[in-house]
Amino acid sequence: MTSRTGFFVLAAVLLLTSLVCVGEGVQLIATGKLLGIGIGICAFVIPAIGVWFLRQTVRFGRTTEAMSRELEAEGGLPVDELRRTQGGRIDRASADEVFARRQAEAEAQPGDWRVWFRLAVAYADAGDTPRARKTMHHAIKLRADAAPAASPAGSAARVP
Question: How far apart are CA 48 and CA 105, in angstroms?
C-alpha cells in the first residue's frame, strides 16, 4: 500500500469515526442530563479537531506537491546523490554531507523558498522528520510571501 492510499484509508476512517462520534454526541445531549450534555459537547469538539488536522495535512501535501512541480519545471529539484547501504538504507555520512551543503545554501539565501525546500528534503533524508516538516512550513511561508510581490496583479491590488 502506498502512503497516498494509506492516507486516504485513514482519512475515510477518521471521517466515519467523526460521524459516529457526532451521532453519539447528539444522543447524549438529548438525554437532558448535565453529564450527558457535557460529554455530548466533547463528542463534537474531538471530531472537529480531527477534521481540522486532516484539512491542515491535506493543505500541506497539496502545497508541497505544487512546490515540487514548480521546482521540477525549473530544473531545481534536489538530485538524489545519496549513497545507500546494500540493504537500500541511506548512508548516514552521505546524508550528513548533503545536509551540510543544503544548510549552507539556506544560510546564503535565507529568503529563497527553493533552498529551504531542498533543505527540508535533506532533513527528511537524514531521518529528522519533525525538522523537515518545520523547514518545509518555512519554505511554504516564504513562497506565499513572495507570490504577491512577484505577480503584477498582486502588487497593483495592494496600491490604495
Answer: 40
Convert the pLDDT of each residue in 10-37 to its tens digit.
999 999 999 999 999 999 999 999 999 9
Task: Please check whether residue 111 is in contact with residue 139, taking contact to mean a CB–CB distance below 8 angstroms.
Answer: no
The residue count for the chain:
160
Give one DSSP letter per residue of 4-36, joined into a string.
HHHHHHHHHHHHHHHHHHHHHHHHHHHT--HHH
Cα–Cα distance between 133 and 61 in angstroms, integer? 11
Query: Residue 53 corresponds to which amino acid?
Result: F
Q: How far is Cα 29 from Cα 4, in angstroms, rounded to an integer?
A: 37
Q: How far is CA 100 from the centre of its chain?
A: 23
Q: And the C-alpha cell for 151?
A: 505577480
What pTM does this model have? 0.75
Residue type, 54: L
